[in-house]
Amino acid sequence: MCLAVPMRIKRIDGFAATCEAKGIEREVSLFMLQGEPLAVGDHVLIHVGYALQKVSEEEARSAWELFDEILEHA
User: Fold this and answer.
1) Entry pTM
2) Which of 51, 29, 55 minimizes the C-alpha distance to 64?
3) Which residue has the higher pLDDT, 19 or 71?
4) CATH number, position 32
5) Rounded CA gap, 20 and 9, in Å?
6) Number of domains observed in the structure of the chain
7) Parallel, antiparallel, or unpaired for β 5-13 and 16-21?
8) 43-47 and 50-55 as β-strands: parallel, antiparallel, unpaired?
């Protein structure tokens, strides 16, 4: 099973981006989303350093709510 984490794009430089979630920043590759129009403020799903899919802010928030709920019961 793989886990992709939703993060918000803070900076874009070509196919590289700085993304943030819950105060944690990561440098990620946008290479797999070449055909997708991306902008600062957009949310993407990140897996092992690669943005895999653009998601809405609501989808990102919902995923984090589920992750937080799972962690409460772990």
Assistant:
1) 0.91
2) 55
3) 19
4) 2.30.30.140
5) 7
6) 1
7) antiparallel
8) antiparallel
Q: Give the distance from CA 21 to its chain's centroid.
A: 7
Distance of CA 28 to the CA centre of its chain: 9
Q: What domain range is 27 assigned to?
A: 5-72
pLDDT of residue 39: 98
pLDDT tens digit sequence for 23-72: 999 999 999 999 999 999 999 999 999 999 999 999 999 999 999 999 89
- CA 68/CA 50 separation, integer angstroms: 22
Residues whose CB falls within 8 Å of the CB of residue 65, separated by 6 or more in sequence, listed in order = none
- Dihedral sign of CA atoms 37, 52, 7, 58 in order: positive
The two structure tokens encoding residue 25: 């920043």
Beta bridge partners of 26: 19
